[in-house]
Amino acid sequence: MNELERWIRNILKPERMTTAELAYDHMESQSGECLAVIYQPLDHTKRSHWHDTALIGAFAHAMGEARTVLDVGPGDGWPSLRVADRFQKIVGIDPSPKRVEIQRENARRLGITNVEFLVMNAEEMSFADGAFDGVMAASAIEQCDHPERALAEVARVLRPGGRFAMIFEDFDSYFDGGDGDEELWVQRDEAVPLGEDAGGAREDSGGRQRAPGSIVMYQVRTKIPAHETRYGLFVDTRGLESIRSEAGDEGTATVAFFERLRPHVRRAGVYELDHLTSSTVGPMLAEHGFTNIRHLDHRLTPVLETFGALHEAGELDSHRETFVDECLTLGAAAVDAAGDGPGDFVVAEKRG
Ligand SMILES: C[S@@+](CC[C@H](N)C(=O)[O-])C[C@H]1O[C@@H](n2cnc3c(N)ncnc32)[C@H](O)[C@@H]1O
To answer: Which burial class, exposed, middle or buried, applies to 262 when counting CB atoms under 10 A from its CB (0-12, 13-18, 19+)?
Structure first.
């Protein structure tokens, strides 16, 4: 634990929170409204739309012949809303009421009716054993307090022979050769639970008191052990701005900056996560009854190379009508080519 962490723990005495309570429940959009189809019209000239569509191809292909599919932690509705036309029924679960509100709103706006979003923790699902033919999870299992419990639940709700596909933050390959990192940023928000005494407080749809505020996030991650600690300081936005203009910068991860921030802190929270890695996730899945466990790299280099070559040659426009099918095919091919690993996209089958 570094000096700033010790200061935060001793002085601010942060409450233990989940990732949903500290971060996801306070975001209007978890993706920054950049998702193709969900927030932006599909655009064949955008590299990110090629990549995103190929990932959808990979998820859909990995589900095999599934008709009923579960999406763990859909954020703004990804990937559920993009793959919905491939399946009879998709259920998305997320412990954050705010996220579920946004997921439902996005489904309504897009006219997608075979998707249902529920407030539920992946570690304690209320579904019957074998309820789903397939389960998808994108950057969500590692956001659970206990990822292994969530994987055990995924195995329980999958029918024998059912398919699982997950993208995860692979701490084995995350830090470009370094041992870890630290980061400070501000999550600006109009709906932070600052408590009843905060000016401008109002009740949200879940009956919680919220007021205009921001969250100062300070995160420390280590490669070994694969671990993340995140502190969130719920602050009065005006107070924060006055300090930042005084400091003349965005704020720094120092005790001095946090001392100045202290009078404006209404609440402080902390979560700790033991992250998955390419080397730990395979044995974990095998232990929970999965077989045919294979890895791929979610960057899907062949898709990016194809885009790059077409862009360079000025030929993107001639792929306007075909690029979606091309991306879906490239994504599916990446799943077919998946191997022993490493790789931060894992596909597996529940043992029959
Ligand atoms: C990084 S976001 C990923 C969102 C989306 N799948 C995507 O890739 O854009 C993580 C999501 O997992 C959800 N989450 C956190 N803890 C969870 C839990 N215990 N069970 C299910 N979902 C959880 C968060 O609320 C959030 O929506």
So the answer is: middle
Rounded Cα–Cα distance for residues 310 and 351 (Å): 42
The span from the CA of 320 to the CA of 50, in Å, is 11
Phi/psi-derived region of residue 176, left when phi > 0, alpha when psi is between -120 and 50, beta in every other case: left
Residues of the chain with pLDDT under 50: 196
Query: What are the structural domains, with CATH classification, of the chain?
Result: 3-29+174-274 (no CATH), 47-170+276-350 (3.40.50.150)
Ligand 1 pocket, residue 19 CB under 6 Å: yes
- Angle of the 301-312 helix axis to the 47-62 helix axis, nearest 10: 150
Distance (angstroms) between ligand 1 centre and the Cα of 313 equals: 38
> How confident is the model over 12-51, as pLDDT tens digits?
999 999 999 999 998 888 888 889 999 999 999 999 999 9
Kindly report the protein residue whose alpha carbon is nearest to atom 10 of ligand 1. 140
Ligand 1 atom at minimal distance to the Cα of residue 145: 19
Q: Is 38 in the pocket of ligand 1 (CB under 6 A)?
A: no
State the pairing for strand pair 202-203/180-192: unpaired
Decide: 121 in ligand 1 pocket, CB within 6 A: yes
The residues that bridge with 215 in the sheet, in sequence order, are: 187, 234
